[in-house]
Amino acid sequence: xxxxxxxxxxxxxxxxxxxxxxxxxxxxxxxxxxxxxxxxxxxxxxxxxxxxxxxxxxxxxxxxxxxxxxxxxxxxxxxxxxxxxxxxxxxxxxxxxxxxxxxxxxxxxxxxxxxxxxxxxxxxxxxxxxxxxxxxxxxxxxxxxxxxxxxxxxxxxxxxxxxxxxxxxxxxxxxxxxxxxxxxxxxxxxxxxxxxxxxxxxxxxxxxxxxxxxxxxxxxxxxxxxxxxxx
Length: 231
What we know:
globular; 42% helix; 2 domains
């Protein structure tokens, strides 16, 4: 019995552990390519536009092995790589595709996230500000991928069997992410919704370097501020 269990462990090492290590290495390679393309896009934007209007800041910064950021004007794209490997939920439609049915191991993926934050949220360390996940790149053993996201990124890269990672594809994902951010504006809330504020709420705002702000909410008062103060 013990030998049977040990044999099963070795089999699981081969079918799961080694597989996940290979996917992790692939995801690391893809994330490196993504950072490289982010740098190139930043350099091109600086050359083509920032020289015309220096007030529109564009720059790339690598924060760590697992995170980098691209600042453009008032927006920030933050890209990050998860260090773990995931399987799709059993109910996911991807499990019903011919590609996955022929080899279920191809459904295991590494994850790369693209978030949008206001540049001032980072600059002034406004920790209560909310950002948005606008895209998630999922990479498998064969360097095939899908993208889940907002806007065009919600449907352009859904066929894992056909989608292969290239620098051109990553550049397209970056450019579409930037366009999504630029087309998403801060909405000014109605005056009546923000008129009443307690002294404690106002002091909390000062301590947080300004009004808690996000594109989806404009900026917050009353109940939302009380909720943030309880965090």
